[in-house]
């Protein structure tokens, strides 16, 4: 798992018209699998399913990522929230990049090993 700057990821996604976002999706998936130990779907598979379904899978993916990150919080003794619902709503209304930024921020906390949520 690697620390990634949220601002840089958002900026690169915007200036590449979403192409970097596809790479970021793969990285988020793989990093969350490593962080939580729950590797149901690889990053490559998530990207493939997203492309095949014309983006519909990414809505489901956002929800599942929220569940994964909530479980990671619970395992660390940190109060959980309803991240899955938040990410789902953001992705439905077209603000998926905001959900990704929140996910990356959460994963960056795990990268540093800090539990100061």
UniProtKB/TrEMBL annotation:
It comes from the Bacteria. The keyword Lipid metabolism does not apply. Keywords: Membrane, Transmembrane, Transmembrane helix. Residues 4-71 form the DUF4234 domain. The chain crosses the membrane at residues 7-26, 46-63, 84-103. This is DUF4234 domain-containing protein. It comes from Lawsonibacter faecis.
């Amino acid at each position: 798992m690697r620390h990634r700057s949220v601002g840089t990821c958002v900026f690169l996604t915007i200036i590449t018209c979403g192409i970097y976002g596809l790479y970021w999706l793969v990285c988020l998936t793989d990093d969350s699998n490593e962080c939580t130990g729950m590797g149901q779907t690889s990053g490559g598979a998530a990207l493939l399913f997203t492309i095949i379904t014309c983006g519909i899978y990414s809505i489901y993916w956002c929800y599942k990522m929220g569940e994964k990150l909530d479980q990671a919080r619970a395992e660390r003794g940190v109060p959980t929230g309803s991240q899955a619902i938040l990410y789902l709503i953001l992705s439905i209304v077209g603000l998926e990049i905001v959900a990704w930024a929140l996910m990356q921020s959460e994963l960056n906390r795990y990268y540093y090993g800090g539990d100061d949520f």
